[in-house]
Recover the amino acids of this structure.
């Protein structure tokens, strides 16, 4: 196989996996708290748009990135207010926020720029930097895959490790897992369930906002309509497959990143365009079905062993 093809494909896998990893981590922290995060899509959308707007206004990629994080966090807080303070149904609230975000981001873009689909002409946004790793970049094949990626690609790995340590090693992480396993029991020993939910949604929002920032300030340098394109839902699937384990969620996201990269490669061939675009989502369904079959098989064997 052509070495150049291998390196370009490997590079693309890491690049395309980056927003999926952040979406998966956003879902993972919520899952550990016993919550179901369908709103990573909205967190990423608002992060992508606000990051571009603030970056263009301040001429600073860093300030734009921080604004994207804040936008994602605010989205998570809104879910907390609606569901904890307002007692709204969690699923319905997230569906409403996702639908509102899809139209709301375009409305805000139009109100500020007069554009309805792309910010590239009206807003000169800055891109987050790419990093060449000394020593690694000189290694044949591997160096060209690992080095030269956007800073958030490396940040995704760091985020997965830090989140794993936080969830499994810290006192606060222990509280989050306790609430996720049994909120009533956790509350009986003095753990504030509303505070844990607030923390989980805020962290999830920050991670989602970072994923959105990558989409509009790393993968591209502009905001486009519905640019997240279901990546938040794929991240949710990746997290669900491993029970909310941050490291496991990152690895599962890489699997979907491979499917995304294959889809991009097939677009260069004569394969039907619609079928090619469906590939990442077909892979998601197939993996979920296989996982369900494996879990069912294990449960059946345990029942037979007990009987």
């Amino acid at each position: 196989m052509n070495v150049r093809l291998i390196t370009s494909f490997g590079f693309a896998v890491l690049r395309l996996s980056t927003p999926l990893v952040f979406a998966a981590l956003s879902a993972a922290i919520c899952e550990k708290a016993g919550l179901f995060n369908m709103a990573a899509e909205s967190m990423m959308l608002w992060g992508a748009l606000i990051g571009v707007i603030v970056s263009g206004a301040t001429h600073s990629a860093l300030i734009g990135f921080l604004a994207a994080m804040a936008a994602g966090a605010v989205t998570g807080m809104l879910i907390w207010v609606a569901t904890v303070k307002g007692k709204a149904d969690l699923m319905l609230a997230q569906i409403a926020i996702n639908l509102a975000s899809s139209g709301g981001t375009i409305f805000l873009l139009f109100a500020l720029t007069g554009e309805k689909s792309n910010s590239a002409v009206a807003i000169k946004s800055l891109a987050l930097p790419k990093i060449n790793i000394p020593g690694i970049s000189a290694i044949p094949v591997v160096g060209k895959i690992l080095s030269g990626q956007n800073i958030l690609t490396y940040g995704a790995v760091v985020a997965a490790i830090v989140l794993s340590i936080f969830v499994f090693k810290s006192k606060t992480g222990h509280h989050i897992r306790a609430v996720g396993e049994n909120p009533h029991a956790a509350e009986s020993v003095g753990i504030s369930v509303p505070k844990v939910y607030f923390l989980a949604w805020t962290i999830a929002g920050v991670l989602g906002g970072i994923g959105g920032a990558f989409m509009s300030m790393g993968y591209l340098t502009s905001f486009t309509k519905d640019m997240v394109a279901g990546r938040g839902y794929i991240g949710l699937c990746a997290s669900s497959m491993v029970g909310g384990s941050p490291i496991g969620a990152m690895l599962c996201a890489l699997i979907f990143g491979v499917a995304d990269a294959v889809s991009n490669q097939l677009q260069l061939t004569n394969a039907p365009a619609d079928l090619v675009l469906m590939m990442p989502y077909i892979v998601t369904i197939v993996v979920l079905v296989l996982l369900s079959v494996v879990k069912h098989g294990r449960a059946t064997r345990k029942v037979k062993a007990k009987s």
About this structure: The longest strand covers residues 130-131.
